[in-house]
Amino acid sequence: MDALILLGEGFAGALTWQNLIWVVVGCVLGTAVGVMPGLGSSMAVALLLPVTFSLDPTAAFIMFSGVYFGGLFGDSTTGILMNTPGQASAIASTFEGHKMALNGRAAQALATAAIGAFVGGMIAASLLVFFAPLLAGLSSSFGPAEFFALAIFAFAATSSVVTDNAAKGLASLFLGLGIAVVGIDGVTGTPRFTLDSPNLFDGISLVTVTVGILALGEVIHVAALERHVRGRAMVRPSGRPWLTRRELREAAPAWLRGTAIGLPFGVIPAGGSEIPTFLSYGLEKRLDARRKNPMFGKGAIRGLAAPEAAGNSTTGMAMGSLLALGLPVSATAAIMLAAFRQYGLQPGPLLFERSPDLVWALIASFFIAMIVLLVLNLPFAMLWAKLLLIPRPYLYAAIAVFCGLGIYATSGATFDLLLLLAIGLLGFVMRAHDYPLAPLIIGMVLGPLAETSLRDAAMSANGDLTTLLQGPIVLTIYAVLLVVLLAAGRNRLLARRRAKAATAKESVEVS
Description:
Blueprint: H1 2-14, H2 17-35, H3 41-48, H4 57-82, H5 91-139, H6 144-161, H7 166-180, E1 183-184, E2 191-192, H8 206-225, H9 245-262, H10 274-289, H11 301-325, H12 331-342, H13 349-354, H14 356-377, H15 381-385, H16 392-411, H17 414-432, H18 438-460, H19 472-510
Antiparallel strand pairs: 1-2
Helix pairs in contact: 1-14, 2-4, 2-14, 3-4, 3-8, 3-12, 4-5, 4-11, 4-12, 4-14, 5-9, 5-11, 5-14, 6-7, 6-18, 6-19, 7-18, 8-16, 8-17, 9-10, 9-11, 10-11, 12-18, 16-17
């Protein structure tokens, strides 16, 4: 009951005309960026991070949440109309969504995606009202060993489980950890990895890294390697932009199942919404195979409804994990955690005690953002698709300019612009060689937490590192991590066996 009272106070703060404007601005920007293939909510938040420091923290985070949710809404639009998902989280929606579009049901596919994202997001936000305070209360019993275990969980899951190549994922993670330790050591006061340059005594700004890796790196990659790639033909939606009762009855169970699958992944640091969207798609495909007239492969509405609901429910719960534990489960959440720190705020139980107005206004804005996004996407999805007509040279040139302006505005130092260029080139090299970017971001964000927790635990135990393996919460976290790693290893072995079997079958057929 207390949670509902606090939520009501949050709505009172979120429904001021200033905050409503920032909700709409965030939703519009997130959707617009999500529609662009190759871009996404993480890039949008990274670009906005340098220019929002003049805003009130509540307004800034309300806008960021709108961008976060809006990016997921926009990602599916390109996947459905062009078979080119904006982000990896929209790949599963593309399989059946684009087939629906090719069958003349593009408008219904867009409506299915918009309603599915709305259902998943609203259910997640509703559970978040009661779940986040409980999780914050649990995290108040966390000590250095528990936070270190949580950081190790995030490192292992994001670098090994959700990447195709574990070696590349770990390399990206250690690169992020290496960047995080540059600067003056807070305990000993000695410079570390600064090359005797005073410009590096304060460390490398996370804002510079995120903008360089995610935004400028993408610009250089497109300019260098994708300039001759032609865009795919876009299906023009026609007909009714709503669903019939029969279609609603068909999609509703899939929306609920997808939401149920996505919710736990908002707490598990497993890379965001990629895994639950594929799991929900796989479940619907198996259920469809039992029907008398299977529809998968022909434009099954359930194959689109479930992944869309799963993606947004994961994102909704991920915000709860970020607020209550300070644990980012995706690259976008990691950037938002950095934004909290830039404002001098540390997510966790103390955030609920010291800044309840911000927390509950932000949670209330999730509900408002879902409604705004439904209004923006249900009838106007085709208008968003027209953004794809912007010439790519103009679009990416504008992104490059915003990168430089944003970084220079925050520091006023030419050195930071040179550092931005160097990190952008690093991002380009990582993209060119298929190194994942999320482990680098999460490693840099959680690296200081892991280091501080390790030192505190060791000092409190007089150097006895076995204290890192003591306590029920610590053992539970490591046990869950072990199960996740074993399951990931088993799935990879099975995938390799299937690939070898398919290759052998093809060679036999050819011969």
